[in-house]
Predict the structure.
Amino acid sequence: MTKLFLVSAPVVAEKAEPGQFVMLRLRAQGERIPLTIADFDREAGTVTILVQEIGLTSRLLGALEEGDEILDLVGPLGLPAELPTAGHVVCVGGGFGVAPILPKAKLLHRRGVAVTSIIGARTADLVIFDRELEAVSNRLLVATNDGSRGRRGIVTDCLRDLLEAGEQIDEVVAIGPMVMMRAVAEATRPYGIKTLVSMNPIMVDGTGMCGACRMTVGGEVKFACVDGPIFDGHQVDFEEAIRRSQAYRAEEELATKHEEAKQCR
Amino acid sequence: MPVKRERTPMPVQDGERRVGNFGEVALGYLDGDVRAEAVRCLQCKTPYCEEGCPVGVPIKEFIKHLQQDDVRGAIGAIKRTNSLPAVCGRVCPQEDQCEKVCIMGKRFQPVAIGRLERFAADWERAQGFPQAAAPPPNGKKVAVVGGGPAGLTAAGQLAGKGYAVTVFEALHEPGGVLSYGIPEFRLPKTIVRWEIQQLKNLGVEIRTNVVVGKSPTLDELKAGYDAVFLGTGAGLPVFMGIPGENLIGVYSANEFLTRINLMGAASFPEVDTPVRIGTRVAVVGAGNTAMDAVRTARRVGAKEAHIVYRRSEAEMTARAEEYEHAKEEGVRFMFLTNPVRFLGDDTGRLRAVECQRMALGEPDHSGRRRPVPIAGSEFELPVDSVIMALGTSPNPLLLKGTKGLSATVRGGIRTDETGATSLPGIWAGGDAVSGAATVILAMGAGKKAAAAIDRLLSGEES
Ligand SMILES: Cc1cc2nc3c(=O)[nH]c(=O)nc-3n(C[C@H](O)[C@H](O)[C@H](O)COP(=O)(O)OP(=O)(O)OC[C@H]3O[C@@H](n4cnc5c(N)ncnc54)[C@H](O)[C@@H]3O)c2cc1C
Ligand SMILES: Cc1cc2nc3c(=O)[nH]c(=O)nc-3n(C[C@H](O)[C@H](O)[C@H](O)COP(=O)(O)OP(=O)(O)OC[C@H]3O[C@@H](n4cnc5c(N)ncnc54)[C@H](O)[C@@H]3O)c2cc1C
Ligand code: SF4
Ligand code: SF4
Ligand code: FES
């Protein structure tokens, strides 16, 4: 399940820019996890985060109710996205990436850039943020695995359609699971279209102190939390990044099981 | 009375047993030990020991109190210049500082100043004395960036003079390296928390989860305070840049130690943050951080734990005590050995380190003999994980984000003698200025800057 939270965090909201993220921790024994700032409202002092419940911490977050407090929240971290000021940009969002693509589309739209947004979900009922994205895009394309809405397939299929149709595209921005971002980068590579991806490696501190988030970009080692998280998708070593994100597979499963056992006791 | 030549040993946990726990290794003096050790001090007319202490602890005076069984008097004297004696008594490299120049050390063994200092501080904590309450406010505000020893010392000094001090710390817990780096078995976290509570009692406000430079910026902070002190440390881990360094199983010491000390990963799955190092571990480097990493690794399941160091035993920078403790704990030392690449399996996990033997050549700029590789000496060391403990450098975040803040050639913040930076109203000190150094030097820098800030704000200087 994917859940959305509006978090009161005036310090973060004041400086947040599209592309940046927060680190949060929910309980004394909790893990620090990074989440993209999907949207922000400086006046109200709030940021929007969207979490896909995939493991222990994301599920604990998902279980919070309106009015609950988050123990620790720090941000905005990472560098803001450097987005173009003219031309035609395709924004691709998959999974939890649908939310963070929104502030980028918004900003581009405000700058007068032509925006095509592509989002995907398993089935029509699970499509989120379509209306919000539609409002800031010249065109919204939807892909569903079962074909219940828009094109049958995945977001890269929609993108490939555009590329094959020879559409003029100046830049592509993709956010979502790493396999999806790699597929997008591979799709645009032959066309030489600049492709920005927002990397989501395992992080510990998020302030450049541990190196857990390091990855190879253009042959150089970069720390995603301070040098990124947005990088040139054609330069990222995705194979390495995907492997590194699996480092704690076994422990992640164990953590979830342990928590469930505790809840039953 | 004849002088006692040998110093009084400190009880320690047995080497075999202690690798099974995170309890403190050095157990501290008992009352009888203190008396025996204190009388060894000659109460020199010129106490050279005090010149060896970067914060000028009145060593002769505090030991005199201990000689008279007056522990309260001793701690009072220590605290006049050192606000974290329980920490310094444990982690100061005394053999290079106060004890190095103690006159007793010329012919016999130096007085165990650190152990005595630790005793006095632990005694005070055990008494649970209510500490000095907050003095009347003087109406001025100071911001401290970074909650490590430099920042905490500056905060304490200024709060004691009536300044309203706010400490901004990026992590969810203050303490800096004391919290995330130095392990529990050398510095129990209850001590660090207790010291921080003392600061709060003095009226210091600590705001965690704030990265200055991101939100707020340094300029904004400056606008809201009469002065700012930067104690942001040197937290950026150094890697070697050799092939395979991004394999799963290669950690920086900072990551490994942070997972365990700050996040509690040794108790996974009772806590949510895991750490996995397997049973065969190699730690690259031979400083204090390397010793902490390798000894921690022993405590979280490493059956085989190696130190891989390209120079020889004589050039090691770790404290002698840590080296001894590591050996007692079964750590194996491979000197004159350097990793050349890391080898992985087909899932991208580390399986071995390829190392090369070295020989000592001519002295380099640091005066230490330069290690040179021996051709054809490569061999494979099978390991499950490697921890890189090659040092750290100052995090460039603040320097990059602040116009007009000058840097040193080595990436630190540039300051003058008093800690003043190139920007008016902003001071800095500790590892952020010097690069990775020691707790007591960071504290000394925090104190000096606090004094300079006070001189300026109280109008002594204009
Ligand atoms: C810059 C950045 C932005 C992100 N934005 C979002 C977002 O907006 N919404 C969202 O749902 N997810 C986002 N993620 C991913 C999110 O952080 C992970 O899904 C989350 O940490 C999983 O934690 P868990 O305990 O629920 O799952 P676990 O069971 O612990 O892990 C499941 C998977 O999540 C990843 N992961 C685990 N721990 C971490 C960690 N500490 N840091 C990063 N990844 C980890 C691993 O790849 C792992 O295989 C982002 C990640 C990064 C780095
Ligand atoms: C593993 C290890 C073992 C050591 N052992 C010893 C020892 O035995 N004896 C000894 O004397 N020394 C030892 N040292 C060195 C000693 O710990 C340091 O020299 C000392 O902690 C430096 O203090 P500091 O206050 O300058 O910085 P730090 O302790 O590094 O603290 C800096 C703090 O600032 C925070 N920060 C950074 N940037 C920002 C920002 N932009 N906004 C807000 N907060 C920020 C950081 O999160 C951190 O908490 C060791 C170091 C390590 C890593
Ligand atoms: S603070 Fe450190 S150097 Fe100074 S007297 Fe104490 S142990 Fe020695
Ligand atoms: S130099 Fe040694 S013997 Fe002399 S006063 Fe200092 S501690 Fe005592
Ligand atoms: S998460 Fe620790 S350096 Fe990036």
